[in-house]
Amino acid sequence: MGGSGGGENLRIPRFYVPPDQWRAREAAWITGADARHLTRVLRLGPGAEVLLLDGSGRMFRAEVRETDRDRVHAVVTGEVEGPPEPGVRVTLVQALAKGDRMDTVVQKATEIGVARIIPVHAERVVVRLDPVKADRRRKRWQRIATEASEQCGRTRVPEVSPVTNFEEVLNAVPEAALLLFFWEEERRVTLKEILRSRPPVGEVFVFIGPEGGFSAREAAAAVSRGAVAVSLGPRLLRTDTAGPVAVALVLYEWGDLG
After folding, report:
1. By CB distance 3.0 to 4.6 Å, which of 29, 51, 135, 224 could disulfide with 14?
2. What pTM, to 2 d.p., does this model score?
3. Does 212 or 222 have the greater pLDDT score?
4. CA–CA distances in Å: residue 250 to residues 97, 119, 200, 253, 256
5. Which of 150, 201, 155, 195 minimizes the C-alpha distance to 176?
6. What DSSP state is assigned to residue 21?
7. DSSP, residue by residue, 192-205
């Protein structure tokens, strides 16, 4: 199979297909909300052309063969070269935010090019989730990331990790990664200075605090772990704005954005 991910592919509907819905990369079933969108909103039927994403970076051209109420059968006709992922892998460690703000963070960060999102409990987080609710929210955020990847043309779907404690995430950051800790109390060091004063690295972790910001204790723990405490500038951004902005700036300087 071969092909090119040219501009004509941007007009073809694309759908993420989970691993268990493929048949040896020769055919696949589109199910659930995607199937309903394909048949009821787009009003596509047998013979229509779609693009199928497997979530690992591969994209396939396929032809719709059968449709019913909640699933669509499509046969692969060729592999397509999709747009590349950013050269730097950015993980957004986002403190839980109130209401639907986390939905916005996941959607926008995915569109921008984030590789992974880790929702985190911090000292000043207002939202408290029991294990059942936390898992339900994670599944919702993963669906949002999948839909955003389909919409913006990405061939990889960012992973949304389970809700994790701040200390656990901090201790799990690889030593070779750059850890950027955004803290409103940091007035001297800006993100621009850090990114333009050192060579790019392959992996960056971006820590964004909750509505009340990270505590001094959390900042000290991050710095002792090797994090660079930085500021986004003179204006105080909402937590759901700060995350996508920080990811965008890192990918602008070190990745493929812009």
Report:
1. 51
2. 0.88
3. 222
4. 22, 19, 10, 5, 10
5. 201
6. G
7. HHHHHHS---SEEE
